[in-house]
Specification:
Helix 5 runs antiparallel to helix 6. The chain starts with a helix and ends with a helix. It is mainly alpha-helical. The protein is 80% helix and 0% strand. It contains 8 helices and no strands.
Amino acid sequence: MTDYLVPCLLLGASLLALHRKENAYDALLTGARDGLKLVFTILPSLVVLLTAIAMLRASGAMEAIAALFAPVFAFFGIPPQTALLVLIRPFSGSAALAAGAELMAAYGVDSVIGRTAAVMLGSTETTFYTISVYFGAAGIRRTRYALPAALIADLTGFVMASLTVRLFFT
């Protein structure tokens, strides 16, 4: 069924355009052109962000920072083993997924650490990536209160993920 989803959508859009007597091909080209403009607007910030994350992980700086902040995470009830995940998640979803997979491989998927990592991945957002994409697409240069509010929401998600796993699985 899913194999036919895109062709059916294209057919439906074409039939709707025929019914309205509009040029579907020109509308498709205009949309593609606008999409490419958006990609070129967003791409530089994404390249810099992903490069910085890769450099920090390769250099070992992220592990050092995670060890430094582990007592703070323990204060909030976040397992210190997940410190790297907590630090990476606001920046990069793929790096956070890799960190979560490493935690699950090391501690097991049914362990408190593995479950906490899974809930953290599902209940938090790649804040800096999201802000750079959406604000870049809208042409907004100053984030004002959006960044602090999003980071507080992420911290709340991390704390609540840890609390939820402790309440329901221990």
